[in-house]
Design a protein that fits this description.
The protein has 467 residues and is mainly beta. It contains five helices and 33 strands. Helix content is 13%, strand content 39%.
Length: 467
């Protein structure tokens, strides 16, 4: 059945993407089929209250993660159910989620994660900026689990700040001072060279001295996942990072994370993901779709695919919905609709970033009914020359094709469309904009290079039609 659905979608896309104009209603019919194929979580009616396992409130010097993890194990071993975090503030260290467990953070409850880095080592297998490694244990982690959830109207606070976690990026504006541990002191470069030199993953063991901050939530190779209704604050690094996951729903989540590399939700080499009714206010990309960096992405060769983004709001961030830059495994089939984006600190609305380090094929991006109050740079930016100073092998030519926007309205930006292709090729093609209105565009139009087959149908910039 899965193969039949995939083949049907690919066939219909082949018919759709070369149509002129694009039939967006038909394209979004495929998103409905993908949505229907996503498996939903379900849990037995059993409750395991973390206070019954020894968790107590308001004890910052005595984190209660052992009690929480005991409750999760007990729930898992009895066939599943809900692990309840009741009202109150619970200080905790790293939490490991197990199959058939819903960790429910009640309204009025807060999980505050300790900033004591020693609690997060020894590390676990994960990816850091698209590179496989053993790094600090994510604050909430799962590996190889099925039917898992994080729910509730409570708060999960990573306690990232200029005093903890964030200075490790190495930037003075985030609290770094000379002599502090930071990724810029060699840890990040070491990890990137592990990938460039094909070092086996078991040898890529990062230490606290490497300064590579952990994710707030990292689910690795999990199936049937729900994250719903929570408020997620102040992650050390990326907030939600599903990796090699399938059938995942992120719904009704509020993310506030103004820290460095503070991405909101980064599905990496994931399939069938539905992100709906969420609010993003971030220090980096709001949603960034990935599939591995350079050699590691090509080694696994697992694209992200079939991702739906609907009814979301984006405030601050480098981009609203982004593909890349760690996208060497490729990406296909993105559906974005009915979203609102507005902030002078939101750089772009739709952003695709890649390079000749990354390679890969990015295709079939469908965007409609987007209302933008203001963005800083461009409504659509496609860049095939991202991070040109990166030390890497540059023999991998990326391709971006079949990108279609309809009924996108923006009230303020520097540019409408910004496309930066490659100097000697046209690897960006079949891009269309239909029924779009971009007002108060400071530089009056678009900047397009290294691209072909760009089609405008009722595109208006500053009230004037663009042909």
């Amino acid at each position: 059945m899965k193969r039949l659905l995939t083949s049907t979608i690919l066939l219909l896309f082949a018919l759709l993407i070369w149509a002129d104009p694009i039939d967006m209603d038909k394209a979004f019919e495929e998103s409905a089929r993908i949505e229907a194929s996503i498996k939903r979580t379900h849990f037995p009616d059993r409750i395991f209250n973390i206070t019954d396992f020894g968790a107590v409130t308001d004890q910052p010097d005595e984190p209660c993660h052992e009690a929480i993890n005991l409750a999760i194990i007990a729930c898992n071993q009895t066939g599943g159910g809900t692990v309840l975090v009741p009202e109150g503030t619970f200080y905790t260290g790293p939490i490991t989620l197990k199959s058939n467990v819903n960790l429910h953070v009640s309204e009025g409850a807060t999980l505050k994660f300790s900033t004591d880095q020693s609690l997060y080592f020894p590390g676990v297998v994960t990816r850091w900026e698209g590179v496989d490694c053993y790094n600090a244990r994510p604050l909430i982690y799962a590996h190889g689990e099925t039917n898992i959830a994080l729910t509730g109207k409570g708060t999960i606070d990573g306690q990232g700040s200029k005093e903890a976690w964030w200075p490790m990026c190495g930037a003075p504006r985030y609290g770094w001072e000379e002599g502090m541990v930071a990724q810029r002191n060699g840890g990040r470069d070491k990890l990137l060279m592990y990938a460039e030199t094909h070092t086996p993953i078991y040898k890529r063991v990062m230490t606290p001295e490497d300064g590579l901050r952990p994710q707030l939530i990292n689910f690795y190779s999990c199936h049937t996942v729900l994250i719903e209704d929570l408020t997620l604050l102040n992650s050390p690094f990326w907030v939600i990072h599903p990796l090699f996951c399938e059938s995942m729903i992120v719904r009704g989540v509020t993310i506030f994370n103004r820290g460095p590399n503070g991405d909101g939700c980064d599905p990496e080499s994931c399939k069938n993901v539905w992100i709906e009714n969420c609010l993003f206010d971030t220090g980096d990309d709001c949603i960034a779709i990935k599939s591995g960096r350079n050699n590691d992405g090509r080694k696994w060769d697992i694209p992200s695919e079939n991702i739906i983004v609907r009814n979301c709001r984006m405030k601050n961030g480098h981009g609203g919905v982004v593909i890349g830059s760690e996208i060497s495994g490729g990406y296909r089939n993105l559906f974005v609709e009915n979203c609102e984006m507005d902030s002078p600190l939101l750089d772009r609305v739709i952003r695709i970033k890649t390079s000749t380090c990354r390679g890969g094929l990015i295709e079939n991006v469908f965007v409609r009914n987007i209302t933008v109050g203001e963005c800083k740079e461009a409504v659509l930016r496609i860049n095939l020359q991202y991070e040109n100073r990166e030390n890497c092998q540059r023999d991998f030519v990326p391709t971006v094709r079949n990108v279609h926007l309809k009924n996108v309205t923006s009230e303020k930006s520097k540019l409408g469309i910004l496309i930066i292709g490659l100097d000697e090729s046209d690897q960006v093609y079949n891009v269309s904009l239909e029924d779009c209105h971009f007002n108060n565009v400071k530089e009056g139009g678009n900047q397009i290079s290294g691209a072909r087959d760009i089609t405008f149908n009722n595109l208006y910039i500053n009230g004037k039609p663009v042909r």
